[in-house]
From TrEMBL, chains A, B, C, D:
Residues 69-88 bind DNA. The keyword Transport does not apply. One of its GO terms (molecular function) is transcription cis-regulatory region binding. This is TetR family transcriptional regulator. PROSITE patterns: HTH_TETR_2 (PS50977). Keywords: DNA-binding, Transcription, Transcription regulation. SUPFAM superfamilies: Homeodomain-like. Gene3D superfamilies: Tetracycline Repressor, domain 2. Residues 46-106 form the HTH tetR-type domain. It comes from Nitrospirillum amazonense. InterPro entries: Homeodomain-like_sf, HTH-type_TetR-like_transc_reg, HTH_TetR.
Amino acid sequence: MKRFMRMPSQKSTADIAAPNIAAPIAASSEGTPPAGPKKPTRERGRARVAALLAAASAVFAEKGYDAATMTEIAAKAGAPIGSLYQFFPTKAVLADALLAQYAEALMALLATVETRAATLSPAELAADLLAVLPSLKVERAAAFALIDARPDMVAQQGALRAGLRRGIAAILRAKSPALPPERAAAMAVTLLQMMKGAAALGDEPDLAHGREALAGLEHAARLFLTDALA
Amino acid sequence: MKRFMRMPSQKSTADIAAPNIAAPIAASSEGTPPAGPKKPTRERGRARVAALLAAASAVFAEKGYDAATMTEIAAKAGAPIGSLYQFFPTKAVLADALLAQYAEALMALLATVETRAATLSPAELAADLLAVLPSLKVERAAAFALIDARPDMVAQQGALRAGLRRGIAAILRAKSPALPPERAAAMAVTLLQMMKGAAALGDEPDLAHGREALAGLEHAARLFLTDALA
Amino acid sequence: MKRFMRMPSQKSTADIAAPNIAAPIAASSEGTPPAGPKKPTRERGRARVAALLAAASAVFAEKGYDAATMTEIAAKAGAPIGSLYQFFPTKAVLADALLAQYAEALMALLATVETRAATLSPAELAADLLAVLPSLKVERAAAFALIDARPDMVAQQGALRAGLRRGIAAILRAKSPALPPERAAAMAVTLLQMMKGAAALGDEPDLAHGREALAGLEHAARLFLTDALA
Amino acid sequence: MKRFMRMPSQKSTADIAAPNIAAPIAASSEGTPPAGPKKPTRERGRARVAALLAAASAVFAEKGYDAATMTEIAAKAGAPIGSLYQFFPTKAVLADALLAQYAEALMALLATVETRAATLSPAELAADLLAVLPSLKVERAAAFALIDARPDMVAQQGALRAGLRRGIAAILRAKSPALPPERAAAMAVTLLQMMKGAAALGDEPDLAHGREALAGLEHAARLFLTDALA
DNA sequence: GATGAATGAGTATTCATTCAT
DNA sequence: CATGAATGAATACTCATTCAT
């Protein structure tokens, strides 16, 4: 439920640079007011930010965006609430930072797949791709919690997806340089959905036919890749 | 004063009845007190309940479970807040009812596919299946918002998924009676993920290569089905 | 906590006549609006009113004035809520009626003591008086719940006490006709407090030295009476 | 979001310390979550807590537990509602604190009587005892309002009474060391009732024969004490 | 700066009372 | 008349955010 907004004093925008692939995952949400997290000046600050983000990730994943309280997050990070607000002037900013961090991590994973792409068989490529999302379990849970609870975050979500698609398309072209960019883009969209399916399966560890189902998904992906890259 | 434990005879809002699939998608939630939604007695009530559910669906879909306020839902339905509480003694109960309604609708759709299954080609079956989830756009959005925001709703979510899987498996066996139940179950899990992917694509209407991607997904599903049912 | 008052439509005032001693226990509370209970026309109505009052007594005694709900009271009496409002247009009126009923019962008890007074020894009189209040356990609990929870009921409470004092004084003069009225009145006030003490002890059945304490109270009352009536 | 279980070290607000009587009037109430009132850290807080308790006492006394609203209490104390909740996480906790404070004050008063007991005549002792309760008028009114309106507070009430009885018994033994403990305990129960009677009389200042009645009660108490301690 | 106490708008839920059926 | 569904003001409690220390 929306809470009173004490009109945060309009800080700067996101600064957490993304390494290299890292698409320019858009910045914030609501209009303009609260912006990006303040970059920690020293080593100590950097560690604290990491702890805060980790705590936030865990709490958001466990309770969802709304039910998570800034106080609990700070407590879990062993940091005073004032400190949390020092780096993340708003709950929304914190959520944004988390999403950005998640995006970065994903892009990094895709980047490694990209470098290997040329040497992989379609089957191996399918397996590698489907393994990307499930590898960041908690972060993904947190990211999903954020995405689903914050309507104003759809932009963020879109940026994230766009980045992923670009990354996947890049991989496809690395594997088959001849593939028309348009075609690669379309295939990336399809594959991303299958990757999400794999991740979803990974979230249900004790699912009846989970393992076979995952194999089935990989099988479908392989068939799809083989058929398309042929 | 504590509310009376109404012990509703819980006949499930379900009446649309799904042929033979219709899993009894559990209802539950917390302890005991606020149980199921009160069934409207008079005609006027029935209409009001429908309006309330529709409003709730829209608001949950738009803002998410937590951010949605009972007041807004009631207002959107043109009903006084007391009226909303007359039928849904708790926000959680309202959410449950919505989920149950969604589950019902889905099962009904799957049931119709099941009756036609035997006469469909693998390609047609793939297309029909992938068309199920996207058809209930708003309801699905609301359902997902609920599922992701309420930790105590995981059970609900599980029941819903289980029902869907059962329905899909039934369809597969209707199509290929020789298919081993275990195999059908595993395939259902895989297919459900692809169906969710199709739904996700449907939610992004202005997506760059959305159409091709959907075709790609259908293609993959067809390959998968053909290969497996062969 | 105060609730919205839908401005009850100004009915008539109390009618439940008090037999004979029954002091004119003042009528209602707040200004003037809701007044007395409607006298039941027929036998059926009389029974229903009795059931409602009994239910109200039990519920008020158990939960206190505020926590008791009109709905629960009606339910406990097996009567529809509308029926409850037929006889008691307001929760306050219901409370008033209960208090009046309690007063009546007490006055009746005192009246019987009065008729015997002349033939009793001081010790017997002490015992009889101290036995009055404890005899109406549930009713007293309800009455106290009402008195303590409704500031606007202080008047009612005062009237009740005044009636009791008058009754006790009458008893004293019946026993010792020579006793100056003023003296009897003052003694009545003292004795009433001791009677309340006895009732309080009766409410703590498993109190350590309850029996001895009650005996002590009777002893004190006897000493007091003997000393004063000498 | 659920409040943290603050597990306060519950040192009891008590500091006024009663000589040797001071019963540890338990605190309790429901399950666990909202435990004791948070002890103010800074000087400012200490003053605010005092103001809040005073306001609560006044409001509870005037309207009773249920009718009193947290908002009104905070307003009367000139404090924002959030501040009230900072120290008393629950209305029940606030009530408990008030009761504990009242118990403390009473025990302190009894303690002073105890130290003088040996030097007092029965008549003086009777007068001193009957003067204890009437001296804390508002606090007592509040305490009674709480006791009578909260079913879950019966325990609290019991503890309070037990403490008082112990205190009175201690006084009796201080006066007459030869008195058997059991006898003292029983007498304490009797005397407590008479003390309550005196307090009740004190609450009706303009009562017709109040003064004589109080004298009568003291007389009865004196007779009782003389007779028993002889 | 760092800290954590203070602030108050916002939310779910209740229930006395009415009045259409 | 009798009934019980409908109504909406009122209340306890939460928590993002600020700012005095």
